[in-house]
Design brief:
Layout (H helix, E strand, L loop, with lengths): L3 E5 L3 H13 L3 E5 L2 H11 L3 E5 L7 H11 L5 E5 L4 H10 L3 E4 L4 H14 L14 E4 L2 E4 L4 E4 L2 E4 L2 H12 L4 E3 H9 L4 H17 L6 E6 L3 E6 L4
Parallel strand pairs: 1-2, 1-3, 3-4, 4-5
Antiparallel strand pairs: 6-7, 7-8, 8-9, 10-12, 11-12
Length: 234
């Protein structure tokens, strides 16, 4: 079966180029021209991945994605945008975006990111993969790879696939410095400026998830990488 992708883009020419290219790659495309129609199609078609412009009429990409996240917390979302400020990116990642691609972009880069997200979300129709359950203790938190679940005092949240990959890698290397380039290669197979901004956004979210235990922190070693630190219990 083909993977179904919802494309929400108000620029008709760009929408046509993207949809025709992805159809040639073997994807089943569903297309909307604004966030309102995109949300309606999401409910009707249950796509495997969403590609959304940020600035759109009737309902922008951010607002549409907030509603999508209430319906399905795990479907991968890629934002396409001409806006590149850190605050805009943080807004996107706060909503639950999995990736950010700045216009103009190369179609091959979009295709690679789609394939990577589908694979890591377990939605790739070309693969059947099974995961071994692994529980990691992070201070007073328990992280389980099955369901990407982070638990604190019997309260659990489900992380996105990419959040889980990053947190798992940091936890396995607890107390050690993990280079930013290592994390980007792990998640996107590529180290560049935009992926560094994406990584920054994910770290911001992980810090919020871990804020309930003051002994746990993610330290940013500027220009080098990150370190997950868990202070010993007294």
């Amino acid at each position: 079966m083909k993977n179904k992708i919802l494309l929400v883009e108000d620029e008709t020419t760009l929408s046509t180029i993207i949809s025709e290219t992805l159809e040639d790659e073997g994807y089943d495309m569903v297309i909307a021209g604004n966030g309102y129609d995109g949300l309606k199609l999401f409910r009707q078609t249950d796509p495997d991945l969403v590609i959304a412009d940020v600035m759109m009429p009737r309902m922008d990409g951010f607002e549409m994605s907030r509603h999508i996240r209430n319906i399905n917390p795990h479907v991968p979302i890629i934002f396409l945008t001409a806006r590149s400020s850190i605050s805009d990116m943080e807004t996107g990642y706060e909503i639950g975006a999995d990736d950010y691609l700045k216009k103009p972009f190369k179609m091959r880069e979009l295709i690679l990111r789609i394939k990577a997200l589908l694979k890591r979300s377990g939605r790739d129709s070309t693969e059947n993969t099974t995961e071994e359950n692994q529980e990691l203790k992070i201070g007073r938190y328990i992280f389980s790879s099955v369901g990407n679940r982070l638990t604190f005092e019997e309260k659990s949240i489900e992380l996105s696939r990419i959040e889980s990959m990053i947190l798992s890698f940091l936890a396995v290397n607890k107390g050690k410095t993990v280079r930013s380039s290592e994390l980007m290669e792990l998640v996107w197979q590529h180290d560049d400026y935009y992926n560094r901004n994406s990584l920054h956004g994910y770290m911001h979210k992980l810090r919020k998830y871990l804020r309930h235990d003051s002994a746990v922190s993610i330290i940013n070693l500027r220009g080098i990488g990150y370190r997950l630190v868990v202070q010993p219990e007294h």
